[in-house]
Amino acid sequence: MIPFNKPSISEIEKKYVLDCLSEGKICGDNKYTKLVEKKFQELFNLRMLLITSCSHALDMTAILENIKEGDEVIVPSYTFVSTANAFVLRGAKPIFVDIEPKTMNIDVNKIEEKITDKTKAIYVVHYAGVACDMDKIMKIAKKYNLKVIEDAAQAIGSYYKGQLLGTIGDYGTYSFHETKNIVMGEGGALIIKDDKKFEEAEMLREKGTNRKQFFKGFVDKYSWQIPGSSYLPSDVLAAILYGQLERFEEIQSKRLSIWNKYNNTLKKYEADGLITLPFIPGYATNNAHMYYIIFHNEKDRSEFIDYMKSNGIVTPFHYIPLHLSKVGEKYNYKKGDLPVTEEYADRLVRLPLYADMTNEEVENIVLKLESFFSKK
Fold first, then answer.
1. Domain assignment of residue 362, given as a range
2. Dist CA 248 CA 158 (whole Å)
3. Calpha distance 201→204 (Å, rounded)
4. Coil, strand, or helix at residue 348?
5. What is the pLDDT along the chain (376 residues), one digit of tens a residue?
6. Cα–Cα dist 184/8, whole Å
7. Beta carbons of 142 and 117 less than 8 angstroms apart
């Protein structure tokens, strides 16, 4: 069976984990947390906070912006639950916006009509690591004085007009879950533009104390400054991530090679009108996080999934639209509210994609793809 995903763990990550364990400093914000922060600076010229998960990083953005009961937040329905949970947990109402079918990202032309005097923020998701149209989104946000939070969980190493995703809005979040390009098992990162908010986030992450400032030498003791929690991952997990970041170019190169192999194989079937393939706008780059196929209908997709499964290949579909979920129903959403989201959620399927796929595995998948579509 060829799985959908498998994290790429080499001897480098194992070496760093054992080193961390041998030093006896396994709690957060020690040697490897600091090395990760330094490596991020080297790779992306980016200041970041290492967080226990992307979900928690998103939670922190809602806390930092004091999103509360009675507020409304613009968000796509076609996303993972964490994007909406971040502010729903604070009592805010999700205002779901349909997607545009080319990129599966939020339809920027439908955002403004959803804005009211209760709207506090826009949470955007860069689906499959491909950028939303950030110029238009930032222009809308500026017009209505709204905060923009980039859920860049899938977008490590992706750019919009030369600018790293996660650094354009007021906040950006990354995921290092084992299904992502760069992994640490569970973990994430928080990017913050505003210096004061960054300092506040450091305290929020450290149980509400100014412990980080104490270790930087800015204060002679630390104490409880604000209500906070523990959003700091173990240094053991940071050791895994540090190894991944050292191998960043290697991992990305392997993933992109597989992505291109799929794309080159399937172009002829798109030309024949059988399927639609991923679209990369001219303003965006491709970090090869995901390769998906869009079928004409759910029936064709199910037939494909069953065929691939019978040949030992896992090809899952993706999100169930949030507005059609049990929680979405509580906000009075119903089928038909977001027709593009509903239609494409029923038609999309993903192919296995991970850095350690062997040539034999890739060729096997390609042969099965050609076998399936050649009969259509």
1. 248-374
2. 13
3. 5
4. strand
5. 999 999 999 999 999 999 999 999 999 999 999 999 999 999 999 999 999 999 999 999 999 999 999 999 999 999 999 999 999 999 999 999 999 999 999 999 999 999 999 999 999 999 999 999 999 999 999 999 999 999 999 999 999 999 999 999 999 999 999 999 999 999 999 999 999 999 999 999 999 998 877 777 777 778 889 999 999 999 999 999 999 999 999 999 999 999 999 999 999 999 999 999 999 999 999 999 999 999 999 999 999 999 999 999 999 999 999 999 999 999 999 999 999 999 999 999 999 999 999 999 999 999 999 999 998 7
6. 10
7. no
Query: What is the value of pTM for the model shown?
Result: 0.96
- Are 126 and 35 within one domain? yes
Q: Give the CATH number of the domain where residue 313 resides.
A: 3.90.1150.10
Instruction: For tokens 């957060």, name the residue.
Output: 28
2, part of any domain: no
Residue 6 belongs to some domain of the structure: no
